């Protein structure tokens, strides 16, 4: 009888490993979809400033649960809790994505060699998503950290953060990077899970969506900068008439 210890299939990349990989892929896609949906909603929420200070103020109050307040004002803790939830989603999504991340010099060389020899659009899209994902981990952490520690949101307070706090330096990089990563991610999820196989159509929709959201986010950022540049100090929170 052999005295060799047999490695269990579960550890040796057998059915258990394959099942875990499938679950991890599903969870990565799910967290990506949730984050992508949040990005779409968040950019439109921020864009309410384009309709005026009072509109933005009302939207903030509603999202912070003003209907449950006796004073008619929202609860800032709602922003903090939701920011923590989104940060947890980002960490889980990033941890799952790291399974596909090249970790050795040889792997990077092989990847670059493959991309140089074979002009494959989806491979280049995956590579771009991987790089933007790495950058986003730091940018998102900085953004959400600010929301957790300083959850004050409003036409004047947000504009002060953007203009006087120089947050616009973060956002001019953050906006295009998160859009590239998010839209490529949604494109890949649609193909991966068989929602549609029409790559050319999905690419066109992705390009249109990118341009639309980039313009929307840029206009919102310019508006915040404009408001911030006109504020008197010390800055007082906006109050509707």
Structural features:
72% helix; mainly alpha; 241 residues
Structure write-up:
The protein has 241 residues and is mainly α. It is built from eight helices and no strands. The N terminus is likely disordered.
Write down how many β-strands occur, each being a DSSP E stretch of 2 or more residues. 0
N- to C-terminal distance = 88 Å
Arithmetic mean of pLDDT:
86
Beta fraction: under 5%
Coarse shape? elongated
Helix content: over 70%
Please identify the structural class as seen in this structure.
Answer: mainly alpha
**How is the main sheet built?**
none
- List the uncertain runs: 1-12
User: How many H/I helices?
Assistant: 8
Rg from alpha-carbon coordinates: 22 Å
Succession of helices and strands: HHHHHHHH
